[in-house]
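Q: Sequence in, structure out?
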Amino acid sequence: MRLISLVPLLCGLAVVAQAGLNRRFAGQWGLLSAVLVNMVVATVATFGVYAVARYVPGLMADSSGAQGRFFDGFTPWHLLPGLCGVLIVLGMPAAIGRLGAVQSVLLLMAAQLLTSLIWDALVEGRPATLARVLGSAVAFAGAAIAVWKG
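A: Exactly. Output:
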């Protein structure tokens, strides 16, 4: 297994931990307050990572190869990933509170798989092979069974 394969696994762990903890904190402060604290911490941490990456050359190589200045060519589309992050951080704790972690994450994964197949085909130029479609369908079916029987 390549080391980069650990990154999505850690991200999956982080999605569940973040949503579950925000759900717990929402019980103390309310969901919007918990999400606000989450986003403030994320913003401060991002500034820290950015500063380290900019001022310690070679420490964190940018794999994209982009060398442009910050905000060059900015469009409203550049706001979409941040809005997606807010939706995830706000939506997953709410879903976990109503459906439980397993059902919420299975539905999240099912949506990710379907969207990933489309993204790979239309944006990345990687075709939706039979193996990819069948693997995604099996995972999607598992999510449907867990939600339906859950």
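The radius of gyration is 18 Å.
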